[in-house]
Amino acid sequence: MAFLNWLASYEGIINQLWLFTITATAVLYVICNVLPDRIVGRILPLHAVFKPKTNVDLDFQSIGYALLHTTWVTKITHATILIEAMLWFVIFQSWHWSIPFLVLAVMLVQSLFIGDLRFGSCFMLVGIATCAGAAYTIDRLGMRHAVLLAEVVLMLGGLLRMLSHSAELIPPLLVNNSDQFEKLSSRNINWKVPLSSIVGYVGEFGSSLPNRILPVQVNYLYQTLFRVKPQTTLSWPEIDTAAKTVLVGGYSKLKSLQTYYNSVTGGK
User: Fold this and answer.
1) Of 11, 65, 79, 143, which has the maximum CB count within 10 A?
2) CA–CA distance, 125 with 131 (Å, rounded to integer)
3) What percent of the chain shows pLDDT beyond 70?
């Protein structure tokens, strides 16, 4: 409790940072869905994952995840998504008691659109478990302390995930005009790299929402940990193979990513 009391002494600053971050996240979602791909896609790699259409395309989401998270650093910083999903339910509960149930309903709709019963069952079980975990956290810590802890962990998680991506190859169009991944160097760094890092923090913060990376991690865990085979979506070995092929050969090696690349470049 001493740590939570210490956090409470900075409640004003934390809440201001939280307000900025969550507002920026809402703006980013709007931008990704309203502005043309040729603008957003040159600053935020694979921004299509923020669109409802691709949000229910589990294969696209999973391949994109495997493609952009190849190092142990990014894998570690993204390993907290399950905990962060629970903390989002703490936030939702603090807004209104009904919002967690609305979020679970959205997750159910997402599962139905994905269309794999085995995945959907696991995804909903995880959703219910994280919602219950949030209720337990609030009961143990009290609403004020639980919310403060959630805000700090969620913002810190987004920051660490953004920083960890510096260990990855740079996605296409940030430092080149091709569909190839490149290693960042003093020779190819440009103004888009620091800008994409700022935008990337907001994107990584938003990635911990229950409908974003959580489905991908559930997809990975229920297949690899519990050895359950998907019914209608790609198996994880197929996802991993596709990601490695694209990482070496570029977006053109996969139809869905080639389509995305063309939407950003205008087919050039």
Assistant:
1) 65
2) 10
3) 99
